[in-house]
Amino acid sequence: MSERVMSALEDKRVQLVVGGVGITGGIYVAVKLSWFRKNPFKSFGGKTGAMAKDLVDRGIQSYNEFFDQEDGKGVGSRILSTPDFVNKFYSLITDFYEYGWGESFHFAAREKGESFEDSIIRQEVAIAENIGLKEGMNVIDLGCGVGGPMRNIVKATGGKVTGITINEYQVGRCTTLNKAAGVEHLTEIVQGNFMDLSKVFKGRKFDGAYAIEAACHASNTTALYKEVFQVLKPGALFASYEWLRTDKYDPNNKVHVDVVDGIAEGNALPEVRTIEDCVKAAKAAGFEVQFTFDRATLGGVPWQQAMKSARRAAYLTHILTGVLEFIGFAPKGTQAVHTMLLKAAVNLEKGGDLEIFSPMYLIVMKKPMGAAAVEA
Ligand SMILES: C[S@@+](CC[C@H](N)C(=O)[O-])C[C@H]1O[C@@H](n2cnc3c(N)ncnc32)[C@H](O)[C@@H]1O
């Protein structure tokens, strides 16, 4: 280094400017490369989702403590109040999901050359088509998140969607985003437990229903499907993208068991079911099963690729959350929440690579026309 540069660097003001530019540049690059597609500072300054700043640390600690599960058993019956547990989970991670993944919290079957965003919309429109949604119809979106799917679906079909989510913070985000997208007249959002649909909607009947990667949170699939059955008109269709173990899952293979346990742990699931479980549940609820199909078998790009592509960026984000937490900008516990999401991502990727798990096993069912007489 030349003498002039060396002496300039000894100047306190030059040091300040160089340091400032370095830190700002570093953070800018980290943010640019990170999982976050929007400004993460906006949310982590005050709180994470619905959770007040001082509660994040306690929230993630108690979440982690909960998962001292036995291999292969999930947390199942030990979840005494699943909705509270799931609500806490979504309070912790909604901002991470939205800023890192987008407004739609699900995976998609993707063709080669297709953008991530286009594949997400195609996945959503496909489920709407499977229940025949069109103008003049009103269907329910079970576990609607912050409403990414409902906005894309109403724009594509002209039909009306009523979303339900357990998480109050998501209701607020969804309302804001629906307004910004100019689709308020075609959307409605309700906070409530989808295990209690008939109570929430008090005799209201819908022209169809769909669930995108949400029914996996139900403490009992038959009980959920029965609730959906209650709020549908006879002849209406219900389609769900379920998170399921595939036929390749071997309960005697420790790797398989650990991966599936990891998926349950990182995503607040009571267990990971099979397509046979769902078909049985649909029949027990009174539905006619129209067809089942694993959308993970479609497309040239595996669904888990989107997470793999973001891996390096996710590690940078991890460092960033640590720095933000250290300087007191993000609440204590923020990095632990991100650690949980990283672990979840690794197990989801493994589950996809081993083809033992699918997050998009489609099941389409119909409430029989004659059901009106049975119900009456
Ligand atoms: C993985 S997210 C999917 C969100 C949305 N379907 C999407 O694709 O963007 C699961 C959603 O299910 C909701 N959920 C989970 N359990 C629920 C329950 N018992 N009642 C209502 N919503 C629930 C969560 O609040 C969350 O919005």
Q: What does it look like?
A:
With 376 residues, the chain is an alpha/beta fold. It folds into two domains: 1-33; 42-376, Vaccinia Virus protein VP39 (Rossmann fold, 3-Layer(aba) Sandwich). It has 16 helices and ten strands. The strands form two sheets. Strands 3, 4, 5, 6, 7, 8, 9 and 10 form an eight-stranded mixed sheet that branches. The chain is globular, with a radius of gyration of 23 Å. Mean pLDDT is 83; it is low at 32-48 and 74-81. The structure holds S-adenosylmethionine. S-adenosylmethionine is lined by residues 83, 86, 90, 104-106, 143-145, 148-149, 164-167, 170, 193-195, 212-214, 217. Keywords: Endoplasmic reticulum, Lipid biosynthesis, Lipid metabolism, Membrane, Methyltransferase, Microsome, S-adenosyl-L-methionine, Transferase, Transmembrane, Transmembrane helix. Its main location: membrane.
Gist?
The protein has helices spanning about 5-10, 10-35, 40-45, 55-65, 80-100, 115-130, 150-155, 170-180, 195-200, 220-230, 255-265, 275-285, 305-310, 310-325, 335-355, 370-375, and strands at about 45-50, 50, 140, 160-165, 185-190, 205-210, 230-245, 275, 290-295, 355-365.
List the helices and strands and how they pair.
Blueprint: H1 3-10, H2 12-33, H3 41-44, E1 47-48, E2 51-52, H4 56-66, H5 82-100, H6 116-130, E3 138-142, H7 148-157, E4 160-165, H8 168-180, E5 187-191, H9 197-201, E6 206-212, H10 221-230, E7 232-245, H11 254-267, E8 273-274, H12 275-285, E9 288-294, H13 305-309, H14 311-326, H15 334-353, E10 357-366, H16 371-375
Parallel strand pairs: 3-4, 3-6, 4-5, 6-7, 7-8
Antiparallel strand pairs: 1-2, 7-10, 9-10
Helix pairs in contact: 2-14, 4-5, 4-15, 6-7, 10-12, 11-15, 14-15
Bound molecules: S-adenosylmethionine.
